[in-house]
Amino acid sequence: MKCSFLGRFIENKSIRATTKRNTRVTKTRPPCTDVTITPVPSSESPNKMTTRSQVRSSNTNLNCYTETINKRERQRKSQSNQRTSEIVENIINVFKLLGQGLQHLSQFECRQAIELFETISLKHLHTPWILSHLANCYYHLHDYQKSSLIYRELRTKFPYHIDGLEYYSTVLWHLKDDIALATLAHELSETDRKHPASWCASGNCLSLNHEYDKAIQAFKRAIQLAPESDYAYTLLGNEYSLVDELERAMACFRKAIQLNSRSYKAWNGMAMVYLKQEKFQSAEFNFTKATNIFQTNPDLICHLAVAQHKCNRSEGALSLLNDALRIDSKNALCKFHKAGLLLHLERYHEALTELEQLRQIAPKESLVYYLLSK
């Protein structure tokens, strides 16, 4: 019984499992025709696909844009190159003017040098190099007032510029401006005590105050600091000449000429020593050397005329004095020596005319009245 019941139970269970499996298999999906697919527009596509014409159009636009950028870049570079060439040309022109002016100054053609320096633009003109050389031009022309004004401007704008200021101290010495000269010497010593210009200024200051021994020591110190400075040797030679140490003065002038053969002041100083020694032929030779270097200096021509007069060539001396007065018609030294020479030649009316003109130029000069009384 039990076996038959168990067999019947197993059979019923297998039948239910088979039925259940068949039922699971017979379940079918709905047909695909019932599903409708709506196409997505291309504009809403996430890949943004483009056509060939659109690609060509975008490439054309990109090429045009690149060409425009390149063209602008070429124009910018050409303008930049043009501006650069203009700047370089301006710089070359400035250096050309400076070189020409320096060449005229080295040949002591001072007026031509002044004209060139003054044609330079203000931003270049107001530099220490040009101001110093411009003042030096007026110094060589013996226009000490104008030279002093330019040197003063240089000191105001560039108080630490010292090179070339030994000439400024000599300008103040000729103007007899002892206060300005003492101030300059003090300021230069405070700025750079080891610069030769400081000691040259101190020497000129001491010389103006008639402290000749101390002035000589100052010029010697300048030579120690700058043994190649022909101007320091010239100043020392002038100082020795003032105290009548003529041999030492000659040695200094010869050393200055050895350092710079175109130092007309050294040639002039040596000639003045020969005049003191009454060696008139030697004096004439050295004055001729000086005038050949600086041909438009009326004082040098006047000294040469004096030497020729001492050599008994009075007519030639008078011709030289007339040449000097054509260069500077108001030169007091030339007029004085011309008047004296005319007196020597017994041309009294001409001498009187020169002395009357000289009295208007130098009313406080006692020698003028002495010659008038004769």
UniProtKB/TrEMBL annotation:
* InterPro entries (alphabetical): TPR-like_helical_dom_sf, TPR_rpt
Gene3D superfamilies according to UniProt? Tetratricopeptide repeat domain
Spans of the TPR repeats? 196-229, 230-263
Q: Which Pfam families match?
A: TPR_1, TPR_19, TPR_8
Please provide, in alphabetical order, the Gene Ontology terms of the cellular component aspect for this entry. Answer: anaphase-promoting complex; cytoplasm
Has keyword Secreted? no
Indicate whether Iron appears among the record's keywords. Answer: no
Check the record and name the SUPFAM superfamilies matching this protein: TPR-like
What GO biological process terms are annotated to this protein in UniProt? Answer: anaphase-promoting complex-dependent catabolic process; cell division; metaphase/anaphase transition of mitotic cell cycle; protein ubiquitination
Keyword annotations: TPR repeat
The entry's family comment says:
Belongs to the APC3/CDC27 family.
- Annotated protein name in UniProt: Cell division cycle protein 27 homolog
Organism whose genome encodes this protein: Rotaria socialis
What lineage, starting at the top, does this entry show? Eukaryota, Metazoa, Spiralia, Gnathifera, Rotifera
